[in-house]
Write a structure and sequence with these properties.
Blueprint lengths: L3 E4 L2 E4 L9 E4 L2 H7 L4 H8 L5 E12 L6 E8 L4 E2 L11 E10 L7 H11 L14 H10 L1 H6 L5 H5 L17 H7 L12 E10 L2 H7 L5 E8 L2 H19 L11 E2 L3 H32 L8 E8 L2 E9 L2 E10 L2 E2 L18 E4 L7 E5 L2 H7 L2 E2 L9 H6 L3 H10 L3 E4 L2 H5 L9 H11 L3 E13 L1
Parallel strand pairs: 3-4, 18-19
Antiparallel strand pairs: 1-2, 2-3, 4-5, 5-13, 6-10, 7-9, 7-11, 8-9, 8-19, 12-13, 14-17, 15-16, 16-19
Helix pairs in contact: 3-10, 4-10, 7-9, 9-10
């Protein structure tokens, strides 16, 4: 395979063997070499073969092999002739990140890190099979699926300012609970307000470095400030929605001969529209989930700091499909965008951005792996031109969970984190060993490519103090 070098951080896969558009990869040579070691490149090429795809099949700097699309894959489709694929969204629908900026500094919790982390661990259910302390009935669940974070605020779990600083105002309007199966609902019913397991986490951090003082001030960030990052999604409900519609689409339309994981349906078909409605409902569950967790964080930390405040900086989606307007051949056109393990990165002036941030661009949150830095970036107009307004969503997995577990023991893992001054609490040994930094790519390298290729502007670096895993 011959890759065409566009710049130091952009590469093109030329059209070949049924591809309708080229592939476009944002990566350094080092990151590109890592992408070549799994099926990531092959998946980029296969996505380029789907009906109605526009401009290119994109891969962000953290891209690696996923289900259907690579994780870090982005593609836009013509609404009339294109398709929608659950493999372009993922099983953990709206797996996403929320960042809270507190009125504390790192010195305020010095010596209390372990106690505070343990308190949060008790307050917020996490881990496989751990149910929520919030009890809702089926009618209320339908309201959650329709109203998202706005339902949670209406019920007293936070403030209007919280969802106003969330993508889609915390509520995707195309959601339809009727498109969600009873099995999916039964899985989600006991899980609202839970963190989950896998790579999901709650992390106490501080702002180590500011790269852009003006934008950081607008985002409400300053040096040494304590921040809290929440990473979770739609739990078992979203996973079941993905499973349901993969099966339904395969039964009705079959699957592409080049990749059965790219099963799909026409966007305007009855099944395509039903999947989008169910996916939007799952996204709303995820929005409400993080809103409730936010409320419990505030309530718990008031036990230690009576005047504690935590404002939402932003809440970004990762695994999502959306209808957006983008320039296609010089003309603005409404298209379907699927971002699989990628973050929206809109620049200044877009109406989708909260008014508070519209003059500078959308906050972009890129978490590192457990024990490494995370970053706050700002969206750019260049990203809108180059990548349909998209950038990376994290460090990107380098090793499988099985391989990661073989590389270290629990004692070694805890010692490694302790040497960095990081407290850790988890409901399982597996949860720690699978998510150690050696399992992921270098977050600094990923963010560096976003910055240098122009698809994101670095604003601040966050350093972990305490990590809670499921």
């Amino acid at each position: 395979m011959q890759l065409k070098k566009i710049s130091d951080y952009e590469w093109e896969i030329p059209i070949e063997n049924g591809m309708k558009v080229p592939g476009r990869i944002f990566a350094s040579e080092e990151l590109l070499d890592k992408m070549k070691k799994d099926k990531c490149i092959e998946q980029i090429k296969n996505v380029a073969k789907l009906p109605g795809i526009l401009k290119a099949s994109f891969a962000m700097p953290d891209a690696h092999q996923g289900y259907g699309f690579s994780i870090g894959g982005v593609a836009a489709f013509d609404i009339d002739n294109g398709v929608i694929s659950p493999g372009g969204v993922g099983y953990d629908i709206n797996c996403s990140v929320r960042l809270l900026a507190t009125n504390l500094t790192k010195s305020n919790i010095k010596g209390k890190e372990k106690e505070i982390l343990h308190s949060l661990f008790r307050a917020i259910p996490s881990g496989v099979g751990r149910g929520s302390k919030l009890k809702i009935d089926k009618n209320e669940l339908n309201e959650v699926l329709t109203e998202g974070a706005q339902w949670a605020v209406k019920k007293g779990f936070g403030f209007e300012e919280d969802f106003s600083r969330t993508e889609e105002n915390g509520m995707m309007s195309n959601a339809n609970p009727k498109a969600v199966s009873q099995k999916a609902k039964s899985r989600g019913l006991p899980q609202l307000g839970t963190l989950g397991a896998g790579n999901h986490f709650l992390e106490i951090q501080f702002v180590e470095k500011i790269f852009d003082e003006k934008i950081a001030k607008i985002f409400g960030l300053k040096k040494d400030q304590l921040t809290i990052m929440i990473h979770c999604g739609s739990r078992g409900l979203g996973h079941q929605v993905a499973s349901d519609y993969i099966k339904l689409m395969d039964e009705k339309y079959g699957h592409p001969s080049f990749d059965r994981e790219l099963v799909n349906a026409p966007i305007k078909s009855e099944l395509g529209e039903a999947y989008f409605s169910a996916m939007a409902a799952s996204a709303n569950f995820a929005f409400a989930n993080k809103q409730i967790i936010t409320h419990w964080i505030r309530e718990d930390l008031k036990k230690y700091f009576p005047d504690f405040k935590a404002e939402v900086v932003y809440d970004v989606c990762h695994n999502i499909a959306k209808f957006e307007k983008h320039l296609i051949d010089g003309q603005e056109k409404k298209v379907l965008i699927m971002r699989k393990g990628a973050t929206r990165s809109f620049g200044p002036g877009k109406n989708e951005i909260p008014k508070d941030y519209r003059e500078v661009g959308q906050p972009v949150l890129i978490p590192g792996s457990m024990g490494t830095n995370s970053y706050v970036l700002c969206g750019t107009n260049e990203a809108e031109e180059k990548s349909f307004g998209s950038t990376a969503h994290g460090a990107g997995r380098l090793k499988s969970r099985i391989a990661s577990k073989k590389e270290t023991t629990l004692d070694e893992a805890k010692k490694e984190l302790a040497n960095k001054g990081i407290e850790i609490e988890s409901g399982s040994i597996k949860g720690i060993l699978e998510e150690m930094p050696h399992a992921y790519k270098n977050i600094d390298a990923v963010v560096g490519v976003s910055q240098d290729s122009g698809i994101g502007k670095v604003v601040a670096k966050l350093t972990p103090i305490a990590v809670m895993k499921g």
